[in-house]
Amino acid sequence: MSLSSFGVGDSLVKATLAIHQPPIGSSTTPGALMKMFNFDFNPAQMSLSRRALWKTTPTAAVRDGAVPEFMGPEPREMTVEIFLDRSTDPDSNDVRKNVEALFSCCETTAASIAAKQPSTPWVVFEWGAFSTARFNAYVSSVEASYTLFNTNGMPIRATCQVNLHEIPSSTLGQNPTSGALTTRRVHRVVAGDSLQLLAWREYGDATAWRTIAEANDIDDPKVLTPGIELMLPAAEEVGI
């Protein structure tokens, strides 16, 4: 089974989309290969984006506004437009099957349910030496537009928009029960900070300061030295 897309059809190196079972346990390596799609034609265009997340906490004591705090980089996102065309073979049902295969990337796999770590498949897009576009990802959405049908109503041409979100190859934490990736971040202490204040800002619960103290081996929560870095556990680890 193959996927076709608008693009440079005479390229010797074809794009592929590998669909894997999600990993079991705390691994960030994709599981067993479920399907491999070889593109008939390479994409004519694709978009990649990445953002850095900053947070500003308003405070009445600062006239010009609070200094923003860097929260960390966000994973890459990629959008690929896939063109499916079987107009030269009107009796083919390949277009329907290929679209259904893409839709299945947004469905929980049976193997992950059996392992009690329900998840959608992990995918890897690859196109020759274009390493920037190669990363582990999940499919966040698939939109299909059918534009041509045979006399029996079977679609023989469609355009699909597939959105991929990167799953980083290394993380600071993972929920061992659900298998969901958790995100911890680092905060640099400034004058006026307290564990209670950080817990309130991060989790909306000042009593969660004990979790921050334990994660950073802090014996005296009343003493925070400006300039030191504190690891803030993910909300899932705090139980929020």
From TrEMBL:
It comes from Streptomyces paludis. InterPro entries: CIS_tube_prot_N (IPR045361), LysM (IPR018392), LysM_dom_sf (IPR036779). Signal peptide: none annotated. Residues 185-232 form the LysM domain. It comes from the Bacteria. This is LysM peptidoglycan-binding domain-containing protein. It holds the Pfam family CIS_tube.
